[in-house]
Predict the structure.
Amino acid sequence: MVTIAFPIRRGPGHWAASYAAMLRFDLAAQRNLLPMFLLMQVMFGAGMAIIYGFYLGHLPRGAAVFIVSGSPALAVMTAGIIGVTMMVTERQLGGTWDFIWSLPAPRSAAVASTVTVFTLLALPGIVVTLALADWRYGITLTVSPMAVPALLLSSLMATSVGFGLALLIARPVVTNALVNALIFIVLIFSPVQFPISRLPLWLADVHRVLPVYYLAEVLRASVTRGLVHDTALAYGVLGAWTLASWAATAWVVGRRR
Amino acid sequence: MTMIAAPGPAMRRPAPPERWLRGYGRMAAWDIASLRLYLPVLSCVLILQGAGFVYGMGLLFADMPQSAAVFVSTGAPVMNLITVGLIFEPQLVAQQRMQGSYEFLQALPVPRSAAALAWYTVALATALPPVVLTLLAGLARYHLHLAITPMVIPAVLLTCLTGVLMGLAVAHGVTQPMAANLISVTLIFVMTGFSPVNFPAGQLPGWLASVNQWLPFGSMATITRSALVPGFADGVPRAYAVVAAWAAASALVVAWAQGRRG
């Protein structure tokens, strides 16, 4: 009898190498899809800023600033929730998800790679939105250095929701339908592109607990001055939700069935 | 040795009516059975989408004008009718392609027109309750009064049919499943924000309003709105012609896509 010992690779070096390998894998596997998804990102981010102008007819400058400064939040949420869900459900339907999950890379590295890809995918939508705002409404927003932590934190929040939904719901087609409905409700009923004071009191109270409002405020604060009054609170609440959401998603990701 | 030859062009004849009807009934039953868990979810999603849109749009306005309320309340049901065909059929076909069941379903001994009409019937039945509830939500929220005319029947039937045929054209014409999904999501986005479905065409830039005269979405809203609020929409005969033309063109694309080999 021959005994073959397989050393178990651990440590930061192994994690970093696995992360880099999974990033190459994700980019290569999605190379046909990424350009189209990029287009969708630009549409959602920049398109919503313009679409609200069509619905309202005449748009006062204050309303235009509010709408445009909320568009980065839309880009991040659609990339993190719809994009991650689409990728996971496509792999589940294609039968490749279990194979990818069984690769000799830490699951956290695989997840981090996906989060990286979809965080980067949100950037073009944000850039085009700000450029279109300047062209359509004559509004110039300046991006502060706080945009980096704002984008990272927001993207972490959104991608955790995408992962959690895609992995918890067993039927990919149901997942797609629910995510479409969720993103629609979030976009319409969340104080992202209109002030929270417009909501009925009970709904405003709900949003002072949920993370969506704070996600929008954190990103809005990074491109405007004076519109967001309690940035520290927004960061704190969003950070707490992100930790809790990833704790739940980590449990789902780490399950062995 | 017995040789079996594939039927040549002379032997391919239209299916007799009783065979066509049998195929239609069986495909409708197949669709309902295979989607029995999905259709209720789809209905709920459509209700949330429609009623949610009606209520949510009011939050954009500090003081919503009555005309805007009419447009949103009568446009949201149109979005329900279009979405069920344009979004969900491509997603279903994409799922079939990824699971490997697409070729099996296409090879079933059922006339293609019967299968398409069966899906249309199921889609219409799924969309109608959300359409009614969305309309009621708008009436309740904005205290509107409608004067529904019998023309609502052909308007609803034609709008749903065109949405289904466009969805089938995307689903069968685009072989890459994810590309088909993205195309249908893009079309829904164009319908929601860049077409005069939920707001007047006059609020669009001139060039975009002109383009929309040839696209189906604004015309679908026109024919439906004219049957719900008489006198609120103009150019109704032209709108019917545009929608019918898009239905016919989509049907041709579907026939071509399903008839190609390889």
